[in-house]
TrEMBL record, chains A, B:
Pfam family, any one: GST_N
Coiled coil residues, start to end: none
Name under which the protein is recorded: Glutathione S-transferase family protein
GO MF annotation, one: transferase activity
SUPFAM superfamilies: GST C-terminal domain-like, Thioredoxin-like
Gene3D superfamilies in the record: 1.20.1050.10, Glutaredoxin
Organism: Luteibacter pinisoli
Length: 217, 217
């Protein structure tokens, strides 16, 4: 069954792989699954055809036969179930991989998205400069806790799983901010993820869609 | 195998069921699984014993034999896999239930948590009043999209799933704000969830832990 991935026609991130389709491309590359791209313009993303597939008007959308999925977390978990590279066999180990996937998108990513909002959507507001230290400190709090938990381990649960894939994808958003450099164990963890051949292929595959000035990170 | 749930010793929400252990209690009640509570104080939540189980110093923590899980999304999905009430048999339907679970915590909840931050953590900041309309409009945007997708359906995917359980749990956080009343279809959807006997039992079970002044919602 062929896999179709709806992604940005032109990603606004200047080629840094921050769009949420990159994490799906990475999972597909780890699993060794072929896929076709369906680039969607910003305008088309808000039109009925796309909104019928993705009610929040976003990318990515994953289609495989009768199944249509949105939410990058659900998509990468669906892909992970097809690949021992992304999910171990043991039921408890699978539950903990999914736990880290949720921790990435529900505990670590929200304060990071606040930084994007603060730097882009609210950049011209009168409170922007004064509020920024609060936004950064909320991220530092989570990074400190995550770094303490990771310690000197290579991955979060022994071997690489889809939980690492998502956590690293979320942390990559911080690369330009300098915050990651304050946590050398996390910076090294991200570098290990980026060094994986599957990530390299995913990164290369999203580069041609990038255009325009990079977003502040 | 007995199930242990670590929850707030004293929930700060004044008994409105907003703590993240309520959604887990709800899932356990839907699945008809017995569980024991291990209430944790705010102080104990930051101590090494708890942090070893929950690296971000939060509740809930779910323990079942050798398995320890945090992240309410991962916990309710683990429970859902034990119950046809929460997850259908069909593989594609299960993937879409997980998709709505992720949509709840990763797309709908973040702007709602921003409201909590704006009303509590940043309530005394000089920008609090001026920034509030932006925070509210980001929530309205998501609620409008979700309401359009739900339409006149009872649940998000035909029959009730763990995706509805989580989406309703997230929307309940808005009850006191009045925002939900702007979207009657969502208000009715939340009311349908709250009317379920399993929700009623979960709500009643968290009431004794509630104490103190309610948080602004």
């Amino acid at each position: 069954m062929s896999i179709i991935l709806r992604c940005f026609e032109r990603s606004p991130d200047g080629g840094r792989g921050l769009a949420r389709d990159t994490r799906v491309r990475w999972a597909l590359e780890e699993a060794g699954l072929a896929y076709e791209l369906r680039p969607v313009s910003f305008q088309a993303m808000k039109e009925p055809e796309h909104m019928a597939l993705q009610p929040f008007g976003q990318i990515p959308v994953f289609q495989e036969g009768d199944l249509t999925l949105f939410e990058s977390g659900a998509i990468v978990f669906h892909i992970a179930q097809k690949s021992p590279v992304l999910l171990p066999d043991d039921a408890n180990a699978r539950a903990r991989a999914l736990m880290w996937l949720f921790a990435a998108v529900n505990t670590v990513e929200p304060p990071i998205l606040d930084l994007t909002i603060a730097r882009i959507v609210e950049a011209d507001k009168p409170w922007a400069a004064e509020r920024m230290p609060l936004v950064l400190d909320r991220i530092r709090n989570r990074l400190g806790q995550l770094s303490a938990r990771l310690g000197d381990a290579e991955w979060l649960e022994g071997s690489f799983t889809v939980g690492d894939l998502m956590m690293i994808s979320v942390l990559i958003r911080l690369k330009m901010s300098g915050l990651l450099d304050e946590f050398p164990k996390l910076a090294a963890y991200v570098a290990r993820g980026e060094a994986r051949p599957a990530y390299q292929r995913a990164y290369a595959s999203q580069l041609p869609t990038s255009a325009g000035a990079p977003l502040a990170g």
